[in-house]
């Protein structure tokens, strides 16, 4: 039997999800309670403490299967189309029973939500790229998001919209800080940049670079014939080609999302992560 990946498999301390009965030997099995993220950006931690490592972030409208409660924390798994959602703890106050099926998502790096359909009206909050919500009404150039306020039509797209050029969304992140576990306008890490850009284009993706290397695209054999959108993988790192020579990546050397020649990046990265493992084309 293949070893289960604890990042994406809900089991811990003698407990496992019901659907793992034939895969995990546990004392107790349980069914989840479906919840929904009700805040713009929510950290998912390894342990029920703000001081523990943040593995990723969950955005407004994301569904979350809750299996356990530990004080003010809920333990469970992000719900994703392909089942690659991360397992961990989120503050219980950021969850509620699903109140809507998202109809739209944010398609810019940050979208202001106005109190009225007027650019001069107060801004209630900002929603990050890929935040999901239900549009209940339209007023001129503004769409009313249920429970939040008005968002300009140029800042959102329908949930069903797809785009073949996911790199354009990655490029929106240029200059953002490098943040471990980040997938929002607060900052991103290398694989978070890839996941966020693909989600903005209407395609789901695993969270970590090793899973992205395993499940995304097909292998590029000729490294001299690279294209925009090719994914370059090293041990523990991934970047996106903007063209045949330029790499876009969130990295701890620059501590930002940077664009640089692939040749230059490869020379530097090889000192800590070795040679390129593979290049994948979607």
From TrEMBL:
Gene3D superfamilies: endopeptidase domain like (from Nostoc punctiforme) (3.90.1720.10)
Biological processes per GO annotation: proteolysis
Ranges of residues in domain NlpC/P60: 160-282
Pfam families listed in its UniProt record: NLPC_P60, SH3_16
TM regions (residue ranges): none
MF GO annotations: cysteine-type peptidase activity
Keyword terms, alphabetized: Hydrolase, Protease, Thiol protease
Protein family (similarity comment): Belongs to the peptidase C40 family.
PANTHER family linked: NLP_P60 DOMAIN-CONTAINING PROTEIN-RELATED, PEPTIDOGLYCAN DL-ENDOPEPTIDASE CWLO
Name recorded for this polypeptide: NlpC/P60 family protein
Naturally occurring in which organism (per UniProt): Hellea balneolensis
